[in-house]
Amino acid sequence: MENDLPIDHPRYESLKHRHLIIDGMKKNIVANAGLIAHGRGETFDYLLGEKTHDFSIDACRAAAAYLYLAKNPIFSINGNVTMLSGKDIVELCNERKIPLEINIFYRSKKRIEAIKSYLKKFNPFVIFGYEESHLVEIENLNSDRRIVDKRGIAVADVVFVPLEDGDRAEILKENGKKIITVDLNPLSRTAKMSDVTIIDNIVRVVPLISEFMSGMNDKEEDEIIHKYNNNEIIQKALNEISEGFINKFNH
Ligand code: PTJ
Q1: Which atom of ligand 1 is nearest to the CA of 43?
Q2: Mutate to test the pocket of ligand 1, among 80, 113, 148, 185 (most ligand atoms within 8 A of CB)
């Protein structure tokens, strides 16, 4: 990494993640626009106090239940997610035998190769999304995110799509898939149309889902999903953000 960050810096964690993203951009893993997306995420995280709230815990529990019950779950991974949570996602996927698929908005062979090489360091049991012979296109989607793996996203029933840009999640949902997203912005199109919206930083979310999945038992997950109300979760996050504005102004 370019800059050595003092560990006692009050914003050490935030700066560490920022530098990971910059590092990822230099390695062709993160798209240039990924820096802007990260900055938007930082703003919401700041207003949320950079911590996991109850609405995120509830959403993570529901996400774990959906993934646990799924016949063909898949983790979709882009440039930012690779840098921030690649290692944690590979560990979770290996543990649960869930495939992961590289699916990026700003698609290029160079970036796909860079993301694949980076993830391979953590020994994933499988990575989809890069072998030409296995790629197909989702209909009615113009962005490069339409290019999916016929063994992965194309046939999945539950898709984990963190830091998503909107249109693909919508089409996937129209195709009958359950969508789990992680997005610090509760007002984004993806956040509003997903079945489970985890409004929290991806770096805190993946370990939490792992923990919930380890504790799952066959009787509980149906009930967790049945009781879960995503609109309520979004409303709670919006309330927290509004309070965040007021608190930051008063202190
Ligand atoms: O790697 P690629 O080519 O697939 O490109 C990835 C980006 C992120 C550039 C692309 O998907 C994009 O432009 O996304 P958006 O539309 O900016 O949406 C990303 C969302 O993720 C925004 O609503 C951010 O608030 C949110 N976000 C950013 N960082 C985090 C985050 N949410 C959770 N955790 C984060 N660390």
Answers
A1: 25
A2: 80
- pTM > 0.85: yes
CA angle 179, 129, 147 (to 5 degrees): 70
> Hey, whose CA ends up nearest to atom 7 of ligand 1?
34
- Residue 109, judged by CB atoms within 10 A of its CB (0-12, 13-18, 19+), counts as exposed
pLDDT digits (tens, 9 = 90+) for 82-138: 999 999 999 999 999 999 999 999 999 999 999 999 999 999 999 999 999 999 999
In sequence order, the β-bridge partners of residue 159 are 74, 179
> Ligand 1: which residues within 6 Å by Cβ?
31, 33-34, 37-38, 40-41, 44, 78-80, 84, 104-106, 163, 165, 182-185, 188, 201-202
The pLDDT tens digits for 14-61 are 899 999 999 999 999 999 999 999 999 999 999 999 999 999 999 999
